[in-house]
Amino acid sequence: MRIAFFFLSFTLLINFSLSAQNYPENPEPGACYIRCPIEEIKELEKVVTTPAYMQYKVVPPVYKTVEERVLVKEASKRFEYVPATYRDVYDTLLVEDPYSTYTIAPVKLIDTFEIIELEPAFARFETRPAIDGCKSPVPGDCDVICYVQYPAVTKRIPVQKIVTPPGFSRQTPPNGRYKVIKRQVIDTPATVREIEIPAEYTTIQKRVLERDAIVDSVEINPVLREEVFLVNDRSASGSSDGYEWRKIECSLLDFNLLPIYYALNSDVLSAKAKDVIDEKLLNLMQKRPELRVEISSHTDSRASDAFNMDLSRRRAKSVVDYLVSRGIKRSRLEYRGFGETQLVNHCGNGVECTEEQHAENRRTEFRVLPR
């Protein structure tokens, strides 16, 4: 009877302990779970860093060249015995039409900031160490809880605003270009016998304005930046600490091979390596924004220990930097370099191995971390 009572008490104590630690309800046999903060993703927010405006430019005038036959000596009559006399006159001819000019006033921008609230202020109960000297055998009798308030989290976003809008002004057209032509006219006509003297002509080239200078406008589109903000939303959950359990593939909690390869002694990602990261890791982190991931990189035993350790860290960091450039927050990523400290075969320092055996040690791996 006493033994049965002991087992009953032990079973009740275990169930109470599991309930107090807020483990997943109705877990599936063989399934794995990670404890994640309750978050929801806001829709993409477009922040205008440069507003739209009109940009103006002057299109120069268009001319065409034409030939014109100009009279330089009038027809006259010449008489024998008393020839005609002439005097010089000068004509001013327009050889280039005037055109309009414009002055462009560019747009003036000013740098400023806008404040965006990332996380609202909230309060919650938090546990503290139990009271010293508590002798109660009942769990929870000596627990201490405190109601803690957290302020809102904001972020300053750099933007640009227009101080002076663009514009243009038109100047008075200058005078055209002229050419002075000398010609002769009769001063005294000939007498006695009339002899016809034909007129004389010359051909000049003129530049005729086909299209005046104009101002053309081009619309400059605004520069937008899209940002995704993760905001804690504890109002829709019954959790008291803001965390929940989410199911995950158990294999992701162990190190998984990320089959990417680098050039000799290089940490630069190739286009093929980026495609592998997109397929194996980027898609997973975009679909599961609650996940945190650790990137680990290893080298073979060739070269010095210090060089291999630094090279492995740089290679792991290059994967993290690439994921950040694709929109993954750096706070969700960790990286470690192990150099040649975790070889998967016998190919240590001084051991002769094939290139394929050394390649087994040059690996990059990832695993999901608990929050």
Q: What does the model show?
A:
- The radius of gyration is 44 Å and the shape is elongated.
- By secondary structure, the chain is of the alpha+beta class.
- The chain has helices spanning 2-20, 271-287, 305-325, 355-361, and strands at 32-37, 39-41, 45-50, 53-59, 62-73, 76-79, 85-96, 101-105, 108-119, 122-128, 144-150, 153-164, 167-171, 177-188, 194-197, 200-211, 214-220, 223-227, 230-232, 243-248, 256-257, 292-298, 333-339, 364-369.
- It has a four-stranded mixed beta sheet with strand order 21-24-22-23. A two-stranded antiparallel ribbon has the order 1-20. Strands 2-19 form a two-stranded antiparallel sheet.
- It is 17% helix and 46% strand.
- Among the domains are: 53-105 and 165-220, no CATH class; 250-371, 60s Ribosomal Protein L30, Chain: A (2-Layer Sandwich).
- Strand 22 (292-298), helix 3 and strand 23 (333-339) form a beta-alpha-beta unit.
Structural class, please? alpha+beta
Count of DSSP H/I helices:
4
Distance between the termini: 45 Å
Percentage beta strand: over 45%
Radius of gyration: 44 Å
So, CATH architecture of the domain at 250-371? 2-Layer Sandwich
The beta-strand count equals 24
Major sheet size, sense and barrel closure: 4 strands, mixed
Stretches where pLDDT is under 50 for at least 5 consecutive residues are: 1-20, 40-44, 228-234
Output the helix-strand order: HEEEEEEEEEEEEEEEEEEEEEHEHEHE
Inertia-based shape: elongated
What is the average per-residue confidence, as pLDDT, rounded to a whole number?
79
